């Protein structure tokens, strides 16, 4: 009888230890999940939270061209040729995708913009760096955009070929590569993965109201994610 009781106690002890270990693992996993949700994008870039520093000029090596447009059901995307990349801290990040959000996702001191372009790059280790470019609509038309938007896809999966390819670098020709904000954030679409290096250019590109309406023909619905808390992060900006 004593042997049965002893075995029973041992089993209870083992079960209890197993339960404690499992509980600790679950708590740890939950804490990790919680902590990884604190560096999300987009954010409201406020002067009060800026850390001014001497940031290096962005090394863009965009040798290719925009050859077409397609709509994936969420965003207007550009097709590209050739290899295009940027150098960040001596690492090569290859341009993988260019797409647009309307309205813009990031805000500057609470100010909203009409459109935001995302130039998504990735290095050989899978690290992601995104250049965000803000657009505002008005009277002034953008010559490069006019060529790109000559014909646009209006249904999911539709692809448009641009007869005369347009240099990718022309899209950013009016922007300084020395003035930008940078911070650690996330993808703004599922799975909202963190560890993304964000670079938001300070210069805003002008497009006409008519050009904006063309973009909205594709983005009939708001495809911008809501602003996320900054939490304990800081934002660096050029001096």
TrEMBL record:
Concerning CDD domains, the annotation shows: alpha_CA_prokaryotic_like
For the keyword ATP-binding, the answer is no
Q: Which GO terms describe its molecular function?
A: carbonate dehydratase activity; zinc ion binding
Q: Which UniProt keywords apply?
A: Lyase, Membrane, Metal-binding, Transmembrane, Transmembrane helix, Zinc
Q: Which Gene3D superfamilies match?
A: Alpha carbonic anhydrase
* Record Pfam families: Carb_anhydrase (PF00194)
Positions of transmembrane segments:
12-32
- Domain Alpha-carbonic anhydrase spans what residues? 16-239
Source superkingdom: Bacteria
Q: EC?
A: 4.2.1.1
Q: Which reaction does it catalyse?
A: hydrogencarbonate + H(+) = CO2 + H2O
**Family membership noted in the UniProt record:** Belongs to the alpha-carbonic anhydrase family.
**Name recorded for this polypeptide:** carbonic anhydrase
Look up and give the organism this protein is from: Candidatus Xenolissoclinum pacificiensis L6
